[in-house]
What we know:
The complex is a heterodimer.
Chain A (H helix, E strand, L loop, with lengths): L3 E4 L2 E5 L4 E7 L3 E9 L5 E7 L2 E5 L2 E6 L4 E6 L8 E9 L5 E3 L3 E6 L1
Parallel strand pairs in A: 2-11
Antiparallel strand pairs in A: 1-3, 3-8, 4-5, 4-9, 6-7, 7-8, 9-10, 9-11
Chain B lengths: L4 E3 L2 E4 L5 E6 L6 E7 L6 E7 L2 E5 L6 E5 L5 E5 L8 E11 L2 E7 L3 E5 L1
Parallel strand pairs in B: 2-11
Antiparallel strand pairs in B: 1-3, 3-8, 4-5, 4-9, 5-6, 7-8, 9-10, 9-11
Amino acid sequence: KNEVEQSPQNLTAQEGEFITINCSYSVGISALHWLQQHPGGGIVSLFMLSSGKKKHGRLIATINIQEKHSSLHITASHPRDSAVYICAARSYNTDKLIFGTGTRLQVFP
Amino acid sequence: DAGVTQSPTHLIKTRGQQVTLRCSPKSGHDTVSWYQQALGQGPQFIFQYYEEEERQRGNFPDRFSGHQFPNYSSELNVNALLLGDSALYLCASSFVGREGHYGYTFGSGTRLTVV
């Protein structure tokens, strides 16, 4: 079993829909990162969370430390949101990033 | 201010050859981590360099080696390339703070194809 699990693996949506991507982890963490990867590979860091909730534009990230679970929400989704979204847990013991396998999101007009 | 710069962006090598990938960290960052991302998978940690030393290593064979220079830039070397080494190689820089590493910033990656 992977230390960081994401669901769903693939997600399609119509423009305007509310999107939720989930991440569960089994290791002790000091922080959790949400990353966006577009075709071609470059990764952009969206959020780093150690507790609570963060919001940036149409993106919201939440984390529940007790339940070892985080969610990334996209409100009013748009085709340009189409990308792979990856959660990465920063191990409390080793400080290494442990990545989930990603969620491929496609938003259609 | 440039972020993390990786070179080359794409590379094709023949099985058995050796390859060197390069990474320049974001200004102010002192730590470089390397990841291998196979198609359809999440990135896998290769190793991390800080103060010109390998500080941590993932489950990769000794064919994978690296170096960090005094200006914090880093190289990843892979010897005796195998077809299975074909992947996107990502570099991330960060800086060491009081409670660990901060400011993780990723490069765009080097796509290596081994034929």
